[in-house]
Amino acid sequence: MSITKGYDSYKQLCITCHGADLKGLPTEDGGLIAPSLIGSGRVIGDKGVLSKILLNGLIGQLKGKNMVS
Question: Is the whole-model pTM more than 0.85?
Answer without folding.
Answer: no
